[in-house]
Amino acid sequence: MDNFRTPAARGHKRAAVAIDVTVNGVLNFVDGRITDLSEGGARIDGASMPARSRCEIHYGGEVTYAVVMWSEFDRMGVRFPYELTHGALYKALKRARTASMVQPAQIFMSNRPSAFGRRGLS
Predict the structure, then answer these.
(1) Three-state SS across 87-109?
(2) Considering the entire predicted model, what is its pTM?
(3) Which of 1, 7, 76, 101 could form a disulfide with 71 if both were Cys (CB 3.0 to 4.6 A apart)?
C-alpha cells in the first residue's frame, strides 16, 4: 500500500470571482482579491499569511472569519470555520453563480440588432 491519497471531492462548487477585500491578520491589514469562492473557503490573491493562522476578511462592511490552509508568496487559500449562508460574501457568491449560468451567446444575441450585415443592410 502506498502513501498516495486521492484528493477528496470538494463539498461545495467553487465560483470564479473578482472581489477586492481587506484581510486582517494578527499584526496587519493586507489588501487582496478573492478569485475563487465557495461556501467553505476562498483563494485570495495579493495577500499571504502563514498557514494555520486565523484571519478576518473584510468586505461590504462585514467580517468573515477564516483559517489559512495554504500560503504562497502572493496568494493563499482559506477555509471558513462557519460556511457562508448569508452576508455580503454569500451574496457575491450567488451573483457570480447566477452570472455564470447565462450562456455567452444569449448575452450577445440580446444586444444585436436584427438587421443583416455589419452596417445593418436588409
Answers:
(1) CHHHHHHHHHHHHHHCCHHHHHH
(2) 0.73
(3) 76
